[in-house]
């Protein structure tokens, strides 16, 4: 048997490394299986102050995309759909990729729709995208 002593005073000279190799190979396989999930890219979000962004950019300099609760989608006030969104954004940017694109959506909109708008906008040249929240708050009227 490997690693067994031949006599009472003789030291063990052989070390069984098979378990160490087995564990190492299992860890390598686990890391190889997990690495594609760790490498997936996401949307880079930079936190900024809304007052600073709105104050520096006028509405004429920015591209305004609005997604209403009804599903109506507009780019700079012109109605479009998801299929025509890319070309509408590209046209609104006018070749200036550094222009700010402002996406306004209600908190009750589907997250998938908002992410789809972000993806399409990025694909058609929008580099700076701000996300704004729009909700119509109903004011309670006081009865006299």
What would your notes on this structure say?
This protein has 144 residues and is an alpha/beta fold. It has helices spanning 18-38, 50-56, 82-93, 111-123; strands at 63-67, 73-75, 78-80, 100-105, 128-133. Helix 3 crosses helix 4. The longest helix has 21 residues, at 18-38. It starts with 17 loop residues before the first helix and ends in an 11-residue tail after the last strand.
* Envelope shape: rod-shaped
**Amino- and carboxy-terminal Cα gap:** 98 Å
User: And the CATH topology of one domain?
Assistant: Nucleotidyltransferase, domain 5
The fraction of residues assigned to DSSP E strands is 15-25%
Order of helices and strands: HHEEEHEHE
Strand neighbour order, sheet with most strands: 3-2-1-4-5
CATH architecture of one domain: 2-Layer Sandwich
Low-confidence stretches: 138-144
The level of helicity is 25-40%
> Which sheet architecture does the biggest sheet show?
5 strands, mixed
Q: What is the CATH class of one domain?
A: Alpha Beta
Number of strands: 5
- Would you tell me the structural class of the helices and strands? alpha/beta
Helix count, per DSSP?
4
Helix and strand arrangement:
Blueprint: H1 18-38, H2 50-56, E1 63-67, E2 73-75, E3 78-80, H3 82-93, E4 100-105, H4 111-123, E5 128-133
Parallel strand pairs: 1-4, 4-5
Antiparallel strand pairs: 1-2, 2-3
Question: Which features characterize this protein?
Answer:
144 residues, disordered C terminus, Nucleotidyltransferase, domain 5, alpha/beta
Short summary:
This protein has 144 residues and is of the alpha/beta class. The protein is built from 4 helices and 5 strands.
